[in-house]
Amino acid sequence: MSWGAWTLLVITVSAFIWCALHIREFFPNWDWKYKWLKDLEIFFNRYKKQLAWVMLIFAIITGVYTGILLSAFNARPLWNTSVLGPLFLASGLSAGAAAIVLSSKDKKERILFTKIDLVILATELFLIVHMFMGFMASTQVQIEAAQLFLGGPYTMAFWIFVVMLGIIIPGVLDLMELRGKHIPAALPGILVLMGSFFFRFIFVFAGQVSRWLY
Amino acid sequence: MRYAMAVDTKKCVGCSDCVVACQTENNVPIGFCRDWVVEVIDGTYPQLEVELRSERCNHCENAPCVRCCPTGASHIVEGGIVMVKPNKCIGCGACIASCPYDARYPHPKGYVDKCTFCFHRVKQGMKPACVAVCPTKCMYFGDLDDPNSDLSVMLKRRKHKTLIPEAGTLPQLYFLI
Ligand code: SF4
Ligand code: SF4
Q1: Could you tell me the pTM of the whole model?
Q2: Is the CB of B83 under 6 A from ligand 1?
Q3: Is this complex's ipTM strictly greater than 0.90?
Q4: Is A204 an 8 Å CB contact of chain B?
């Protein structure tokens, strides 16, 4: 699984470069103190499009990586499902869309990303249901892993913080906003971000409890 | 060459000599162990049946710990022995979570440690410390590819099992039952 670690290396560095290229949007009088930094900025500005493509591809790989890494743990039945990769990607993408909605000043952009977020949240909900269906139709160890969320110790945390507050409520709020109803603008974005965080947190913890029986 | 081990659950008396021998041989820090003895009791009194198993890393043919290691510290050496390179290990614990047998432990020095089948002894033609010290001689270590090794002969003669083969790890620690 070292490919994930290499991916993180690429995406972290390119994300920092990308932020540096856009720093004047936030600090208009920014000045790079040294000449070589200025030269670097000119260089990366020239290849900005290529950089964007690299980031796009590596962002997707980073998004699925966590899920694929966890699904490779066959000692932990809860993680050991191929749905986890797409699910982590969907949760990451919805968090990204929510972050853009939160930070963007352009109304049109906000509406576009609200729509995108809505589609991703629906996909995420579908994947969660799909995953539990898969577990319940599988072997005893996976049925018991699913039981952690269906009556077990993580039930409340998962269905309230991840599914209700993290997916369904922000989804409904997004829909209301698109219909022209007035809602607190930042609320859905914050809820989605929190939902994504709790999803990862709860899944990583619950997975370590699930095990083979022998 | 495929190193493996067989443990006779009928001969084992659960004395834990193998555990102490390993801790001494491999300088295992206090409070940890690379091998351990499990006692499984079935039935209700007075119809009881006991199975004693000296367990350790199974040196899996399809090792999830190696697959999940992000740095390549967990690797497979000659004869299929699964090893950890302490200087490459970052102690992330991915391998600990990925082993269905709980065979690894975090060494206080910051890396992950586990049974090596005493590779340092095996290289010199000796047996692993646990096998060498067992007072009932209930453990057999050897090469599965050699049909005349103690191990191959024992596995041909006796009924045996591995632990949770359904986990898909192809474990190479056999229990004679
Ligand atoms: S028993 Fe555990 S540590 Fe040993 S090779 Fe198998 S998965 Fe890895
Ligand atoms: S703890 Fe060490 S050996 Fe285990 S997965 Fe992490 S880097 Fe690899």
Answers
A1: 0.84
A2: no
A3: no
A4: no
